[in-house]
Structure formats: structure tokens, C-alpha cells
Amino acid sequence: MIVAGIKNQYAEYYGSTSHSKTLSSSDSFMGTISAASTQVDKQAEGDVIGLKMIKKQGTNIFYGIKAIYSEKSTRENPIVNITTNYEGKKVSYNVNINEVNPNNASRLEMFALCSYADDQGLGDNSTFGTYQTLCTYVEMANHNGYISSDSDGDAWEKFENEKMSWVNMSQKVMDLLYDCNDLIQYNKGISIMNLFSLFSKEPIFI
Question: The whole model's pTM is what?
């Protein structure tokens, strides 16, 4: 574990919603979109359960990404519609939450999962949501050499397609937080791991 220099610096990586319920009745981190996500022609309508901004690489331009339950979503089979206006073009995906695997998922899929989790009270209860906590973890993992990636992907294509093991990444960052005696952020990781355990295709050990 690379800890040198981080004890006095890791706080800068921290970002410091509850939503209404609208549902109807390894160390090799990086991979390449999975069966959990399907591009659709029509964006969903309804209450927004998640929002984030994504920066276009090499610019100061940001585009919005929002999460809304698909009209096909049910309690047993939740489906979250993710829509962006990246570069002025609307693109929408439906993400089948039950098919998201945090051991090998894209940022798009994790944003959908975290938006769903926050809406259902399964997230980390942080001010800006579970996905923002994970973005902070990604920044710390990148800073310490655990992964080589940007927190927001800096491009819709990367946000959409690049996959990683969020479980392995989070475990390494949690070890770092524990060594730094930051139990508040570490306990957020415990909440996230409990969420991951509901959807992981493999056992998760903390």
C-alpha cells in the first residue's frame, strides 16, 4: 500500500439526497459496456433520483447526467434510465440494476446503482450521494497508484464504457483510510460494501 504523503493530503479528495420513492409494482481493475446497460431512444420522465456533471476533456465545459426510473421499472426488477446532453446530443441508457456487478462495472452502471441505492435508503447517507463518495475513492486510488484513471472519466465515452472492479478499488482505499485513522470515511466504505454485497456476483470480504 502506498501511504507516503497521503496522511496530510487525502482530505482534499473528499466531497462533503434523499429522494422520493417512484418505483412501480482482483488487482486488475480496468476492463472494457455490459449486458446491464442498453441504449434506448427515449429518455424517461419522472422524478430525478440522481444528478452529476461530467467534464469534457481539455475544456472547462461540463454536461449534465441524470438518473430517472424507467417506465419499465418495478420493485422486483428496478431499471434506471441514465440520460446525458453530452456535447449537445441526448443519449439515454436503461440500466438493469439487478444485472450490475460492482466487481466489473462502468461508471454509468455504478451511477445508476448508487442513484437507486440512495433513493431506496441503501447508500452511504452522505450529503452528495453514494456515487460522489465512490468518485472520491477513485481519486484517492488514482493518486496512490492503485488505478490509472480519472474520477469522472473526462469523457462520456469513458464514463459509458470503461469498467473496473469497484470492490477491489474500494477495499484498497478503505485500508488506506483505516491506516490514516479516518473512521468516518472508512465507515462510509462499510456502507458501500454492504450495498455491493447485495449485487456482487462473488463473495465480498471486508
Answer: 0.79
